[in-house]
Design brief:
18 helices; four-stranded parallel sheet; 26 strands; alpha/beta; Rossmann fold; nine-stranded mixed sheet; binds ligand J2J; single chain
Length: 538
Amino acid sequence: QAMVLDGVVPYPDEFAERYREKGYWTGQTHSDLLFASAADHADEVAVIAGDRRITYARLAADVSLLAGGFDALGIRRGDRVVVHLPNVPEFVEVVFALFDIGAIPVLALASHRRSEIEYFIEHTGARAYVTIDRHDGFDGAATAAELRETQPTLEHTVIVSSHGGGTDLARLMAGPALPRARRSLPEDVAFLQLSGGTTGRPKLIPRTHDDYLYSVRESDALCGVTDRTVQLVGLPISHNFTMSSPGILGVLAAGGTLVLAANGTPDVAFPLIEEHRVTQAALVPSLALAWLNSALRSRYDLGSLETILVGGAKFSAAAARRVGPELGCGLQQVFGMAEGLVNYTRRGDDEDTIVATQGRPISPDDEVRVVDDDDRDLPDGEEGHLLVRGPYTIRGYYRAPDHNARSFTADGFYRTGDVVRRDARGYLTVVGRSKDQINRGGEKISPEEIENLILGHDAIHDVSVVGVPDESLGERTKAYVIRRDESDGQPSVLGLRRFLRDRGLAPYKIPDLIEFVTEFPLTGVGKTSKRDQRVKGR
Ligand code: J2J
């Protein structure tokens, strides 16, 4: 019987039936995927990380052992487990072990801190939290201990060791393996992915095995992923792009090899490309630019690279045009979202399409609408709001009925908040955004979340957070702050930054620029004019 998880909006029956009839939803689960690949590619290398090489057989065996460990803790089908790990092989082992049990990983980003994690645990009622002892100034053990005190639902914390010492994970893997069995159904929610968020807190996105794996299989086909693919994983490992477009799951489904990198900067990525003969990498535009402009390019042999996939934020046509001639590889643009819809430029497309559009949807059943402010459909070529419904796009966020009423139409189209133009062939070009969100080099930030935290400071009267143009990141965050008492000059810029850090806010959300002002520019109707602030804020 399908698992009933409260707070999830299911696909209506007639849609689910259609998606199955058409062969999009095949009935495979995430753990089916791994064990099938392990059977077909047992001795081939699934994951490379530092000097570790993990074969498919080893990975599957470790996953079963770890599943046994989680099972012994009492983690069961439907239980939520917050997974908070950087780009380490343990991420892959942990999420697949949870998939095997039918437990639901909540995919935090490694850059998240106490404030975000607390919210994920509270909002999902998570019973367990898996993190790493140390990462980028983050102290996992201390945070876990603190959360155990403050979070009533949290029964277990599991700390991965960053230096390979005797770890909680090793202890969990010491007992018997969980025998192979089907412990979740394909229509079950497989995990909770994060949205960028436009309101106070990031929304959680329930993705089912059936819908997600459809997008993964099609991504493999569209990006030419095979068992010969060697993919560099330099973007944050749990991000939707990294997971599924075609991502970690795409490579594992095809029997290819993942090369995990701490990040995607040229100094880290180029030596790995040379050493492991990497064929494919996913990048955000700011990293693609860094690769193009890097002096290190001539020092390494990047000749194995066949394709880079660039997405997460708008890639300028001028930069896109340089990829082929300067990096000597192909480019596919990817315009995707954790809520579902993913668009790719196709490998055979003409150059103008590849550099100037963000591709077209994966599925013939992705119902894309481009509408005006009153939800009226616009003709091709005109700019409008992008709405979408389809076989791998959610029908609602997790436990968010009020927000869902605004983010979805009555007939189930997701309001992406992106402003696009569609051409006669169905290719989309992203021209802007109508949602209140900052896209900082592909990392999404909700201004409201930062504003709410800053307003928690006693000496602050008002605040407005906006994205201001930035050459490399596309946008940076700027906070305009009105202090209660201008005369004492408190807090200072540094003081305010420290305040946000102490609140446990992820470092990437701390405003790049802070300016103290005495009033905000107003719109005609007397609201703060964020548009004026964006333009003047550089
Ligand atoms: C302009 N804006 C883009 C692009 C995403 C693949 C790739 C990316 C994501 C992702 C993803 C863009 N040009 N090429 O999940 O599977 C902006 C849009 C979009 C939002 C979604 C995937 N690619 N964007 O970025 O959930 O505004 O997913 O609505 O993080 O990023 O962000 P996110």
